[in-house]
Amino acid sequence: MPVCVMGEGAGPDGQGTASLTVIPISHISTSSNHAHHSVKGTVVLKGRLVSSPSHNFILKAVLQDDTDSNTSPQDGSINVVLLGTLAKDFSQAVNQGDVVVASGFGVGKSPTALKDKLHPCNLLLSGERAFVHVCQAPPADRTSQQDVKRKRPLLPAEVPKYTYTKLDNLKPGEVVNVYGVVVFFKQPFKSRGSDFCSSLKITDQSQQKISCTIFCGKLESHPQIFQIGNIIRMHRVKVHLYNDTLTLLNTFGFSALTFDGAVGAGVEPRTASKSFHFTEEDRRAVEELRLWAASQVLLPADATLTLSAVQPKMYFDLTCQLLAKATVDTTCTLLRVWDGTRCPHALLKLTVEPNIVEGPTFSEEREKLIASVLVYDNHVQFAQQIKPGDFLRIYNLRAIPGLVKMPGLSSSQSEVNHLSFHLHGGTAYGRGIRLLPGDSPDVQELRRVMEAFQGYDEVSHPDLNDSVLWPPLSPERGASVACSTERTCDHLVEPLTLSKVKRSVPGGVHHVRVQLRSYEPRRLHQALKLYCSKCTSMQDVPDDEHLDSIFSKAAADCGPLQPCSPPTWTLSGKVYIPRELSRRPPVRTLNVHMSAQLLSEGRIKELIFLTGSTLQEACHLAAGYHNVVPMRSSGGHLALLDPPAPFLFRGRKRFYRCKQCSETSVREPTTDGVIDEKNIGEALGVQLLKFVLLMKFQLQDASDTLDVFLWRDAESFFNVSAVDAAAYQEAQDSIRQTLDSLCPPGDSSGRRPWLDVCLTEYRPTEEDTQTFYQICHTSTFKPSCTRTPPS
To answer: Could you give the CA distance from residue 775 to residue 757 in angstroms, rounded to a whole number?
Structure first.
């Protein structure tokens, strides 16, 4: 038996390991010969036994070296992969917390080292030479599943019992769970590797202050800390001794919950984890830390100010709502924000080109309420991800009086004493931006202030948030427009109440007179879908983050192309990204391939095949050329990018293909004087996906409510095409205006217009017993007067 179990408390130095040298885990490498070495460590994680066709069984575990307190978590913990009979025996005999000695192992590079932050190598144990000697932990230190099951059944409602260590009881090398009050923090920033890094300092009733460093690949996995004084709970952090100072580092299985630090506030955990355990004891721990922190003079003064309290040259934190934004260049982004107050100083108005502004425009009077925030350097990436309507907290913002001169920006010389706000690069003093959830106490207070602002209307957010109070939009864009609906069908049926519709025979057509009670999704971009008319599949529109990874991978894999591949296309060399398109110097070139026929006709700008580009570069080129087809190199030939990447860019519009129904190839298109997405798609063997709008409405009348879908006739309902809604802000604003008129946010049903609607009743398949309803043959219009409900 390759797994040998020693008695409880016995040393794991039994037969087979006496002649071997035990080496620290940190000394393991692929370049050394470990035939006469063994490794000793504690099993801190034991995975499940998995059946494998090639090895019968496979199991993964993590060993931690506790003998060297100066070893970092990355070097002191290593993945162990066991195969075959050894994996099965290990699963039965070894428990988490046991000390083991492994010998006869092979060493390879760990494919998960960047993700799990463990040793860059892993141990592979298989075959007759591999042995594992086990010293099982005494019952006081472990509880195996077998012991638990013999004592009593494990109920689904039971949760693990966690032990929390006070900060003055930390010992180097330990993996612990802790609670603390945040006394300093930095927002996550990009590390030198592939991860984001955040740092914070916490304290507790022991008065000990401990620094913590968190490395996670995703921003949402970092603790959601909004301000000093927040409470944090961290599981599975390792105590590390560095320069004679104890610090905490996240390790495998790390998780964190954060809470508002105000006494009397709700105890709702903030976390990105899909599941977590939070008991009444945890609630008491949070409340105790709040009361203790409130009685101590340990927290610095709150740096958060409103615009009404800002003075020139101050550094402060600002809680605000993003109204609009614009990319100035690769190192600077302009944010337009407000917080429901009026700054006593004149605010500098920075003018940018209208075509690069994301968000609505405002009248001159309303501009006096809006602050211009210039975001620089490492904060630009985050600024590009946020959307108008989001609530933000900007940390260590600086108020600067005077004229701002930057490429792409213009301002009046008479505004030399006006205030602008700058978020400089770096992370010193916690500098950064944090997106606030809509249900946070800070956002609720901000909305209360906005509601109380005198002389300004209530206008709901046009894209992302429900019932957000903005400075009123200019009449030409975003103003409230009265709307109603009318039926466009010729069905000769009498109007019914919703209660009668529900009792009707399935398969009919009905006319109803109703009000729109609610709709979803509230975020308009989620209503856009891609539909294949051939296989009738429907999918979400891919986000730019996913597309950027596809483009980057294709650019990295882009190899040399044959001179004419395929024969109807010719390699026409490289071109610079035009300065006027990219708004920066042309620092790199891209491979461009053009149709031989179009090239001979002198129409080289009609159609461009592009390889080696990023998503941003493809979008820039599409702004200046009619049709851009992103490609990759496949065996020296041109091929389309993998779905869900778009196969064609036309200005701001993107076109996608159905992976299941497309049989791609690269052929000369038939132009007939016009090149559009249809004949380009046919030449490429592409089944074109159609943009559609899919929404769910809840209708109501005096008798009942009814859930209905809107998608087949959504374009005629809104009088806006889905492809335009995917590309143009104006189309999105039109849809939002219509929805706000039909269902005013926060209003009672009395102000909602009565709608004449045609409904079809159907069941998706013959086997389905549930009946669904769909809006059809109905369009919105702007009435000259308000209609009243029937008596």
So the answer is: 7
Name the phi and psi angles at 719, rounded to 5.
60, 35
3 state DSSP class of 150: helix
Lowest mean pLDDT among 22-36, 294-308, 468-482, 590-604: 468-482
Which fold would CATH assign to domain 307-452? OB fold (Dihydrolipoamide Acetyltransferase, E2P) (2.40.50)
Q: How much is the pLDDT for 707?
A: 93
Q: What is the pLDDT of residue 746?
A: 61
Q: Are 237 and 72 in contact (CB under 8 A)?
A: no
Work out the pLDDT band at 604, boundaries 50, 70, 90: very low
Distance CA 641, CA 613 (A): 11
Q: What is the pTM of this model?
A: 0.41
* CATH level 2 (architecture), domain 484-525+693-781: Beta Barrel (2.40)
C-alpha span between 633 and 618 (Å, rounded): 16
Strand, coil or helix: what is 628?
strand
Distance CA 733, CA 462 (A): 6
How confident is the model at residue 216, as a pLDDT? 86
Which pLDDT score is estimated for 113?
80
| pLDDT exceeds cutoff 90 at 503 | no
- Alpha-helix residue ranges (DSSP H) falling in 299-347: none
Domain with CATH 2.40.50.140 in the chain: 3-135, 167-295, 307-452, 484-525+693-781
* CATH class of domain segment(s) 167-295: mainly beta
End-to-end Cα spacing for the chain:
87
- As a three-state string, the secondary structure of 694-761 is CEEEEEECCCCEEEEEECCCHHHHHCCCHHHHHHCHHHHHHHHHHHHHHCCCCCCHHHCCCEEEEEEE
Run of H or E residues at 147: helix 145-151
pLDDT for residue 152: 36
- Taking only the tens place, the pLDDT of each residue in 635-665 is 767 788 888 999 998 888 899 999 889 888 7
